[in-house]
Amino acid sequence: MKIYTKTGDKGQTSLIGARADKDDLRIETYGTIDEANSFIGKAVTELDAETFADILDDLEAIQHELFDCGGDLAVVTKTRHYKMTDEPISVLEKRIDELMEEGPALERFILPGGTPAAATLHIARTVSRRAERQMVSLMKEQEDVPVVVQKYLNRLSDYLFAAARVVNARAGVRDVEYIRGAKVFHTEKD
Question: What range(s) does the Cobalamin adenosyltransferase-like domain occupy (predicted)?
Answer without folding.
Answer: 3-167
